Amino acid sequence: MSLTTCNVHFAQQSDKIVYLSRPLIKQLKLSGNKSVHLKLGKEMITASLKALKRSGNHLYLSSGVRNSIRVPKSGNVMLLSNGDNELQLGPLVGILTDTIHTSEGPFGSRSGFIKQVIRTGDRRAYMFVFTPRDINWQQGTVYGYFLHAGGNWYRRIVPLPDVVYNRLPSRRAETSASISALKDRFIKRQIPIFNWSFFNKSDVYKLLDNDPEALKHLPESVSNPSAAKIKEMLEKYQFIYYKPTSGSLGIGIYRLTHHPRRGYFARYRRGNRNVLVRYNSFQALMRMLQARHAGRLSSYVAQQGIRLVEIDKCPIDFRFHMHKNGNNTWVPAGIGAKKAGRGSVTTHVNSGGSLMTPQQALSHTFGSEAEAVLERAKSVAIKLSEAIERNYPHRLGELGLDLGIDKDGNVWMFEANAKPGRSIFKHPALRSEGHASVSYIFEHCLYLSRFQGGTAT
Ligand SMILES: Nc1ncnc2c1ncn2[C@@H]1O[C@H](COP(=O)(O)OP(=O)(O)O)[C@@H](O)[C@H]1O
Ligand SMILES: [Mg+2]
């Protein structure tokens, strides 16, 4: 196995010929070989091999070769020698998403992020975007979107890719039978795909239910709790969070409190206001929940309330954006601290929350211990990611963990997102972490496609 980069040129001949510059032939130990198997993605061709008097790493593909394995463009890319006279161009990396044409581009608000990922692979890989409709399984091809250096999109038909980064945006579409079948087809053709799909909160709790390592960082969580169970949890913990299992952005979340003398309270977002309502009895509280969500409470989760660190009486929690790197191990790529808006149940920016660095957030409570608390939280985040991965039947490469730190410095996980948003990286202090995050995605693609191992020796 050896890996190098080469400059691909297109030649006019229609025969199936691959020309390699002398240094490349030497480096790849192909001297004396008359033919070579050349691969791109899942496509392969056998072509005659000819040496070219030229210095540097150059590879010329006749149109016969280029058209049959569908090389999308000339220029620099990696070249992997698998031994056995086999060369592979690539990697060919597909980003799976959906088109929503807006002024921001064919992929709506995700266009900017997708362009970043593609540019990270510039001159090292063939990166493209595609949607479920762009795959032709019979021919084994994809009609992909490629990015010009100037920022415009163009389309090329390419073979099935070496690896798929799943960024399908819709929770509902992703659980449909056709999308599940599509993902299964990639697996059957041995094309790794990460991440598999969105998580539901209750799925993650169930996943970790038998994992003692993770369990000590999970608040007690009960899916579809009976009224009696809710009452029991309120007595045990004084306050609980009551949230929809497939919710996001804090929508539909209640913070329920029981005060022995003053009664029951519900804090939640009504319209665009944060309200706190008092109830004389537990029954009255339950009647309100029923009335607001008739029939849909069965998909709610009740969770032990955690007393988070605060600044000015506003709770703070943390988003740990986790990636698998080029060595297939988990790293916290970026950490954002989020302070809740006044009176808000959650820390989301759309309900008045604000973003800060973890150092800012923790030094307020822990002073000189802040750095140690943060380091501990990072190692918990890695352990939790490993635990989720270990108990999950599909491949994961990226996770957004919503973690809380209580006043004693204990770390708690509220939810894990398999398609995490990127809003923390908008903070000026987290911009370089944002770039690092994108690099990890690319490096993990290299790992999964086996385009690794440094340069040839
Ligand atoms: N059990 C809990 N104890 C304390 N705070 C919580 C709890 N559950 C949720 N929160 C707060 O609410 C926020 C949103 O909850 P989360 O489970 O992440 O739901 P969503 O999917 O809407 O983001 C958390 O980031 C945290 O600030
Ligand atoms: Mg959340």
- Report the CATH architecture of the largest domain: 2-Layer Sandwich
Strands of the biggest beta sheet: in what spatial order? 1-5-2-4-3-7-6
Report the sheet-strand fraction: 25-35%
User: Low-confidence parts, pLDDT < 50 over ≥5 residues?
Assistant: none
Report the top-level CATH class of the largest domain: Alpha Beta
Number of domains: 4
Q: Return the structural class.
A: alpha+beta
Rounded Rg: 26 Å
The small molecules bound here are: adenosine-5'-diphosphate, magnesium ion
Q: First CA to last CA: what distance?
A: 10 Å
CATH superfamily assignment of the largest domain? ATP-grasp fold, B domain
Q: What's the β-strand tally?
A: 26
Query: The biggest beta sheet, please?
Result: 7 strands, mixed, barrel
Which structural traits does this protein have?
single chain; 457 residues; alpha+beta; Barwin-like endoglucanases; Rossmann fold; D-amino Acid Aminotransferase, Chain A, domain 1; 7-stranded mixed β-barrel; 6-stranded antiparallel sheet; elongated; binds adenosine-5'-diphosphate; binds magnesium ion
